[in-house]
Structures are given as structure tokens and as C-alpha cells.
Amino acid sequence: MTIVKTNRGLALAAVVVSNFMIAIETTIVSTAMPQIVGQLGQLQLYSWVFASFLLTQTATTVLFGKLADRIGRKTIMLWGLAIFLAGSVLCGLAWSLPSLILFRLVQGVGAGAVQPTAMTIVGDLYTASERGKIQGYLAGVWALSAVTGPLIGGLIIQHFSWAWVFWINVPFGVVVAFMIWRYLHESAARKGGRIDHLSAAVFTLAIAAIMADLTALSTATSREITALTFIAVVATIGFVWQERRSPEPMISLKLWGRRPIAAANAASLLSGMVMIGLTTFLPMFVQGVMGRSALTAGFSLSAMVMGWPVAATLSMRVVNRIGARPVLRTGGAAIALGTAVFALLGGQSSPWLAGIGSALVGFGMGALSSPSIVLIQEIVDWTERGSATASYLFARNLGSTFGATLFGAMLNFGLAAAGFAAVSSEALRATIESAADGADAVALRSALESSLHLAFIAMFAVGLAIAGVTMLIPHVAMDRKPAPAE
User: Fold this and answer.
1) Rounded to an integer, what distance in angstroms lies between the CA atom of residue 8 and that of residue 16?
2) What is the pLDDT of residues 301-333, one digit of tens each?
3) Are residues 337 and 413 in the same domain?
4) Among 31, 76, 177, 199, which residue's Cβ finds the most Cβ atoms within 10 Å?
5) Nearest to 394 by CA among 264, 209, 484, 244
6) In this structure, are residues 123 and 477 in contact, taking their beta carbons and an 8 Å threshold?
7) Do residues 211 and 335 both lie within one domain?
8) How far apart are the C-alpha atoms of 70 and 479, rounded to whole Å?
9) Residue 60, burial from CB neighbour count under 10 angstroms (0-12, 13-18, 19+)
10) Is the dihedral angle over the CA atoms 216, 220, 221, 223 positive or is it negative?
11) Average pLDDT of the residues in 15-22
12) What is the pLDDT of residue 486?
């Protein structure tokens, strides 16, 4: 890949800001959701405001990764930003929760284009030896978004309308689009051939149906779940049939089946499960079982957020000397060790122990994710780099959906086994916030402890699987060529 007349510093700044917009989207919106629901109503649809964004983001990631290989990163990045900003404007204008969910779907499509394309641009502009520092920056963006998102959301709600949690994207997005248009120039030969639009449409429908099915398991009726499952099965069968006959398949089995990519993507999917399980259930355990404050729970979880960028930066410096395989195996082992700590947590455990486990998982995630992206980008040609990068991000997002379903089922099973199958959300919230006492609250807290322990055991099993998968990653020589021409 050769980039001519490109200002790498300004192009990278645009990539960093675009990643920050996508990363902060969940945390900043979650802070505003009580006010949004209070004004728009329909509390039963609360979770779909978040699920809809993730649904279309995941379903379109692979599509836009392939399009970036076909027609160029710059074009897809600009289209993705336009779609994301249009969705943001529409979200701020939403008049009901169903309309907000619809516009969040549009936002998710834009995010599905921006995130993989931005990561691919980094792979185009910088060699493997240079990307260590860059991946540290990008990992730091996700950590910063987790810390500042609730703060920014709170300030917006306090001083402005909730619509500004969406509209705040517009000025930043316009600046990013201008910087990409002005300072990023591609001169690499683009891959020929046409896009199989039918295959792309059926793939998007299949993934969207699968994710919607998994998301709706705990809230939808049996008829709705049956309908979603039917659509998912039919769309998946249709996609496989179309891929087998298409001269330009959406998913290159040859590419996705390469051992380094297959192993890295499997680890990505499993780590997505651990990540969603930890962020969902650790605060619940610290507050509801240990009886600690929300602030203490937040600090326990923030250890993962802090450990991630540190490990991402350090790991890439080590990769340049010893290769990716030992670093990836270390990351997998750290995640397994961190999840083992959670499996040992009890009601009398110190929050510091939870923080240590969280830090280990965060360190493992950082040591696993950044070298994996660099690894898969190094072993493919420019014409496949977008697809390879998108496959990794797709696996992680899909893993988050699987994890939410699996660990949520574990929690529900544990509560049902303890006789709390019909516990109300208000009673559970009061217990978590330590606002309830009495025999019923004590029994519920005990049931919550055993249920979360079951979820942590499952998380530990996934952590062991991550460590096992990283053992399958072969040695790959990393590129030490000079940086591409600017």
C-alpha cells in the first residue's frame, strides 16, 4: 500500500476522533436514558436503544470491510461518517422510543462503516513496528470514553436537552470528514470485480436476525422469538447457498480460514463474551453481594479500563522484538487468570480482589487485541486488509451479544433455582443498591450471590478457552520495513 500526499499526523487524528465518537456512544447515551425514557415513555423498550445500535453495527461491519477493499478506505469512511451523523441528528429529533430505536439502527450502520475502516487506515499508513504506539492511542481512546462518557452525558443532561447527547457528534464528525477528505490520499490499486449485493443483503439480514433473537430471549414472547429464529435460520441457509454460487462471495473462506486469522477471531469472539459479562455483572456483584457503594463498584471495573491501554502499548513494543505469538499467549493466560479470580469471589471478599481480577482481564485484553489486529493486517494484501480487520471486530461484537445472552441465562437460571424466578426489577434494584433489608432481601442477596457465582464460573470457562485458542496461533514474522511514503 502506498499513500501519496497524505499527512499521516492529521489523518491519524481524524481516525482517533472518529473512534472516540463511536466508543463514547454507549456510555454517554446510558447516562441520558432515564431522562429520555421519562419524556418518551415505553420503559419496556429500554434495552433496545442499546441493542439496536450494536445490532446494525455488527451486521454491517463485514460488508463495509469488504467495500473498503473494493472501492477504497476514504470513500467508505466518508459515507460511514455521513450515515452516522444523519442517524445522530435523527436520534435527537426522536418523538418516541420506537422512533429512537429506528434512528439508532441508522447510527449503527454508520458505526459499522467507520470503525473497521478507521482501523484499516492505520494499517495502511503505519508499519507493524510503528503501530505499537498507535494501537496504544486507540486503546486509550476506548478507556477515555468509558471514563468521560458518563461525565459528559451528565453535564449535557444538567444544562441542555437530552438530544444533545446525539447532536454533539455533528461538529466533531464534520471536522473528521473534512480531515479525511483533505489529508488522506490513496494510490493503491483497488481490487476488481463486483459486489454481490444479494449476498451482502442476506448476510446482513442473517446476522441482524441472530443478534435480535439472542437479545430478545429474555424480553420477547415465545411467538416473537419463534419468528426471529425462523428468519435467522432461513437467512443463514440462504446466505450459505448464495455464497456457494457467487463468483464474488461476501466472506472469503480462504481468508477467514487461515490459521492466524481463525485463531485471532476465535479469541476475539470469546474475549467479547468475557468483556460484556464483566462490565454487566461485576458492578452488580460488588454492590448487591458485597454491599459496597456504586463508586466502589465503578472503581473495581475501571481497573480493566485502565489496564487495557497500558497493556496495548507495552505489548506492541514487545511484539517488535519477540513476535506476536508469545504476547498473544500471555494475554490469553492473563484473561484466564483474571476470570479465575472472579470465580473465587464471595460476599466477604475484598473489593480489591475484584479490582485485581478486573485489572488482569484488562491487561489480557490489551495484550490480545492490539497484536491480533496488527498480526492479521500483516499477513494479508492491501486488497484484503479491510475484510481481515472487519472480521476481527465483527467477531468481538458478536461475542458480546453471545456473552450477554449466555451469562444473562446463567443469572436467570440461578435466581429461578433459588425460588426468585418472578423477582421484580424494583426488588432486584433495591437489593443491588443496598436499599432493602429484612428476610426477603437477605434471601434475595444470597440468591444473587449464587447466581452471579454461576455466571463467573461460566466466564472462567470462557477465559480458559481463550488461553487455549491463543496456543493455536502460529509464529508470524512482523514487518520491519520503513514507514510508507507520506
Assistant:
1) 12
2) 778 877 887 888 788 778 777 778 888 999 999
3) yes
4) 76
5) 264
6) no
7) no
8) 24
9) buried
10) negative
11) 87
12) 41
Q: What share of the chain is helix, strand, coil (3-state, %, to 5)?
A: 80, 0, 20
Phi, psi of 93 (to 5 degrees): -95, 5
- Kindly list the distances between the CA atom of residue 484 and the CA atoms of 2, 11, 172, 187, in Å, as whole numbers in the listed order: 6, 14, 28, 12
Helical spans, DSSP H, in 41-130: 48-71, 73-92, 97-125
Q: Residues 398, 276: contact at Cβ < 8 Å?
A: no
Residues 180 and 110 in one domain: yes
Shared-domain flag, residues 234 and 260: no
Shared-domain flag, residues 200 and 171: no
Calculate the CA 272 to chain-centre distance: 7
Residue 392: predicted pLDDT: 87
Same domain, 109 and 217: no
Using a pLDDT cut of 90, give the percent of the chain over it: 16
Q: Would you state the cell numbers that stand for residue 115, as one nine-digit string?
A: 470503525
Per-chain mean pLDDT for the chain: 80
Are both 46 and 97 inside the same structural domain? yes
The boundaries of the domain holding residue 427 are 254-486
Sign of CA dihedral 160, 163, 166, 172: negative
Cα 404 to Cα 376: distance, rounded to the nearest angstrom? 27
CA 369, distance to chain mean position in Å, is: 11
Tens-digit pLDDT profile for residues 332-349: 999 999 999 999 988 888
